[in-house]
């Protein structure tokens, strides 16, 4: 049984059960699901995963941002067990349950801003994005949606249309949802205006003067949706002026400003929500992933007058706000607050960033290091002058890390960014071992 304090220990190889499961997966699971590493999890605790063959791995991807509070935190597991003994399901709009109301109240209390708030629940990140757009359209009576290059908002039709990475997410799945307008994001390392921040003039904000004349009239735009830190796009952290500038544009044009906190929320960036780093109160917020530490749940939380725009029955669904998931979320928030995991995210940052900068001094191929709290990534290039993406080398680093017991994944439209989403409960010893493994992998791939 894992205690959560174990370190990475590999070398057991693949047993017969793992090999059989790999064969079954190839035979019976749809190819589009894309089975990952040849290791099947048996149990997880804290920041450690053990596979069926007894290998242990330090987890630096955290279910893609789902287990900020760690694998199987005891208060969350206990809350799920207690709820499961009472009932598993009820359709909240017919027979409501207490957990839904309590969680809505709690979220409305902890999101930033003094405006009266309301909440609603669905099951996934894509679903909360779709519902946020529906709410904004109903509130404004408009149809248009502004999204950003390098964004990721999900894989359902509308969410996929908002997403900005063609392969694998959009290729062959058109036609896409109409009335969606893309603008460049504040990707300073690859600024489309070839500017250098600071002192760049914030062309990414000035661009809207032309955009509203050349592409879409703002009077037809219902909402603007943006990740405060772009996740799948490569952990792109905007300049501090950017998000407040966007919010001001929206306020002037009567456009609902939606912050997509699906990946950046729940202490990941050193605050409960990433927008707090920018002193911002969005009109609507979407949240999922670590809200339930592995249980399927997502939410839209926002200003009460906007949230109340849809009529009864226009939003929600059969499993929306499931009692087990809401119980898990209530317990998870207690963990985030009680264990001060936002502070822990900043301490992780204080250790990891100097280590990455040491690697960057040795390897010029580390072109850019981006971070906010424990949402950390570095972008790899073949040549720092040309910034040609080093996608193959990125994949090689991930594979070398896996061989040594570190689970870590890539990001970025060009697939050349290594991203870190370690559980915030990771121990200092685990963090040090993980960074040692990462350093070895980078040294090996770049031959230094």
UniProtKB/TrEMBL annotation:
Q: In which pathway does it act?
A: Amino-acid degradation; 4-aminobutanoate degradation
Question: By what name is this protein known?
Answer: (S)-3-amino-2-methylpropionate transaminase
Per its UniProt record, what CDD domains does this chain match? OAT_like
Q: What EC number is given for this enzyme?
A: 2.6.1.19, 2.6.1.22
Tell me which PANTHER family the record gives: AMINOTRANSFERASE CLASS III (PTHR11986), LEUCINE_METHIONINE RACEMASE (PTHR11986:SF58)
Q: Which cofactor does it need?
A: pyridoxal 5'-phosphate
Q: Which UniProt keywords apply?
A: Aminotransferase, Pyridoxal phosphate, Transferase
Q: Which GO terms describe its biological process?
A: gamma-aminobutyric acid metabolic process
Q: Where is the signal peptide?
A: none
Q: Which PROSITE patterns match?
A: AA_TRANSFER_CLASS_3
The reactions it catalyses are:
(S)-3-amino-2-methylpropanoate + 2-oxoglutarate = 2-methyl-3-oxopropanoate + L-glutamate; 4-aminobutanoate + 2-oxoglutarate = succinate semialdehyde + L-glutamate
Q: Name one GO molecular function term.
A: identical protein binding
Q: Which InterPro entries match?
A: 4NH2But_aminotransferase_bac (IPR004632), Aminotrans_3 (IPR005814), Aminotrans_3_PPA_site (IPR049704), Class-III_PLP-dep_AT (IPR050103), PyrdxlP-dep_Trfase (IPR015424), PyrdxlP-dep_Trfase_major (IPR015421), PyrdxlP-dep_Trfase_small (IPR015422)
Q: Which domain of life is it from?
A: Bacteria
EC primary class? transferase
Can you name the source organism?
Answer: Formimonas warabiya
Q: Which Gene3D superfamilies does this entry report, sorted A to Z?
A: Aspartate Aminotransferase, domain 1 (3.90.1150.10), Type I PLP-dependent aspartate aminotransferase-like (Major domain) (3.40.640.10)
* One Pfam family hit: Aminotran_3
Concerning its family, UniProt says:
Belongs to the class-III pyridoxal-phosphate-dependent aminotransferase family.
Tell me the classification of the organism that encodes this protein.
Answer: Bacteria, Bacillati, Bacillota, Clostridia, Eubacteriales
């Amino acid at each position: 049984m894992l205690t959560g304090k174990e370190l990475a220990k590999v070398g057991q190889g693949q047993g017969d059960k793992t090999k059989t499961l790999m064969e079954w997966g190839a035979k019976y699971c749809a190819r589009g699901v894309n089975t990952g590493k040849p290791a099947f999890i048996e149990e997880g605790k804290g920041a450690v995963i053990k596979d069926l063959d007894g290998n242990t791995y330090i987890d630096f991807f955290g279910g893609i941002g789902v287990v900020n509070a760690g694998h199987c935190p005891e208060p969350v597991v206990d809350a799920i067990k207690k709820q499961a003994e009472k009932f598993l399901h009820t359709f909240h709009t017919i027979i409501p349950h207490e957990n839904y109301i309590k969680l809505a109240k709690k979220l409305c209390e902890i999101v930033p801003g003094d405006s009266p708030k309301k909440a609603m629940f669905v099951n996934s990140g894509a679903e909360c994005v779709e519902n946020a757009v529906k709410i904004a359209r109903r509130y404004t009576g408009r149809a248009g949606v502004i999204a950003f290059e390098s964004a990721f908002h999900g894989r359902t039709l509308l969410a996929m249309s908002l997403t900005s990475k063609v392969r694998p997410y959009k290729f062959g799945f058109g036609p896409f949802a109409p009335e969606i307008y893309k603008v460049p994001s504040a990707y300073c390392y690859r600024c489309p205006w070839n500017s250098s921040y600071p002192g760049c003039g914030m062309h990414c904000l000035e661009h809207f003067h032309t955009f509203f004349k050349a592409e879409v009239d703002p009077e037809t735009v219902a909402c603007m949706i943006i990740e405060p830190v772009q996740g799948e796009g490569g952990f792109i952290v905007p300049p501090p002026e950017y998000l407040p500038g966007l919010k001001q544009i929206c306020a002037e044009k009567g456009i609902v400003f939606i912050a997509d906190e699906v990946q950046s929320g729940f202490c990941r960036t050193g605050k409960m929500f990433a927008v707090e780093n920018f002193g911002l109160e969005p009109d609507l917020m979407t949240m999922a992933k670590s809200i339930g530490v592995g249980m399927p749940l997502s939410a839209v939380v926002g200003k009460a007058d906007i949230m109340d725009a849809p009529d009864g029955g226009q939003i929600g669904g059969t499993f929306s706000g499931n009692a087990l998931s809401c119980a898990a979320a209530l317990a998870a928030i207690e963990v985030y607050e009680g264990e001060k995991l936002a502070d822990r995210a900043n301490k992780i940052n204080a250790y990891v960033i100097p280590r990455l900068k040491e690697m960057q001094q040795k390897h010029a191929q580390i072109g850019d290091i981006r971070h906010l709290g424990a949402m950390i990534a570095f972008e790899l290039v073949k040549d720092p002058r040309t910034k040609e993406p080093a996608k193959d080398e990125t994949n090689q680093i991930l594979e070398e890390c896996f061989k040594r017991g570190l689970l870590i994944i890539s990001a970025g439209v060009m697939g050349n960014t290594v991203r870190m989403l370690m559980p915030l409960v990771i121990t200092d010893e685990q963090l040090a071992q993980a960074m040692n493994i990462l350093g070895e992998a980078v040294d090996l791939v770049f031959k230094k």
